[in-house]
């Protein structure tokens, strides 16, 4: 009508979540309450270099190109939908390490550091050769209790002790890949307690880098990223010129420093307190419980670790090095039927014992024995053993080892009878696998078909921007599975058989951490 100016509703603020996994990088837009906008999803595979000597590395330049590429594609798709990005969060794979040398500042890049070492991944075991040299120091100084991290090649302590035989550590700055990406974007670096606490160089009680460990390595604080304050963020206008020009859609957005994908997975599953525990099954797998810092244990439960989610919360749990990667090996190696047929056959044999005991350590072992040099074993093979039986045993052993971690958490008082377990990741595609996990745990589980780590970092940003409160975060719709006592008892017997086989094989591997402490 004449004289009336039409009004249009303000667009809902959106969150860009970037998820840096060990096999793919993803970026997508979420609503503030964690609803994925699937039309904005961008994904790029990343591939580690792996060799028989224990190498597992990534090329830093290729990773950074993948990182910026998924952001650009997701932003392009979001722009076509008219979405306005108010916040950006980054969830990243844990334990990566790289060395960076400073270079002269330029107008476009005020303080970037090149060249870099490769990005050493959690599965790079070459530093295991340093274990014998560090066992006495690690044990005498009670560093497992201090740092919450076992003496293992996935952590920075062993890696840096090994690297100093090849490099002058003090000539480099040491950081995770996500910290490096932040440096490339903003010309400055920092790290969150979420990432620092999973390095093995972080003193939990002091919530700071452990000065004695740094002194042992010949390093100073300036060789590591400074720890970000609670609530730290940077505006999009602080991006260095090339990215400020490339991403004008982010000028009004706030960037939050990267969090570990484990912490984000708990957030995305709404396992933000100990009334819920999170299991995530991806390339690897983990079971984690979030607890207030005041209840953080002085020593981790045997075989497990303690990290920090933020300045106020700790994560207690365990991680398996062999999950989705183990199943990928199985699919490549076994002559399996198509997925619908395979699921149908597994449903028929679910209650049967295959007679197989598998040690799944194709990528070594983290929780619970921490043997990096452990190898895979299939015991009980006969001429009558079928590929489907082997596949069933592969699925079962992942469930059994997660149940073993759960038992340790129960004994330590961190997994209560009333605690709900929320499961995310690849298990959502296989009801049979979910049933196995439920029966092995002997607990009800809720399986959510959600990218938990990406959703978690989106919720983290929403909470930081005060777009949401934790009590208003909705739990994604999922499917509940209930155990029965008789089947659970049979899975307990299989777990005991698995544990006995692990102990029998341990003599052929290096001594367990529990033997050293």
TrEMBL record:
Residues 277-459 form the Carbohydrate kinase FGGY C-terminal domain. Its EC number is 2.7.1.12. It is an enzyme of class 2 (transferase). One of its GO terms (biological process) is carbohydrate metabolic process. Gene3D superfamilies: 3.30.420.40. Pfam families: FGGY_C, FGGY_N. Keywords: Kinase, Transferase. Residues 14-233 form the Carbohydrate kinase FGGY N-terminal domain. GO terms for molecular function: gluconokinase activity. Belongs to the FGGY kinase family. This is Sugar (Pentulose and hexulose) kinase. It comes from Chloracidobacterium thermophilum (strain B).
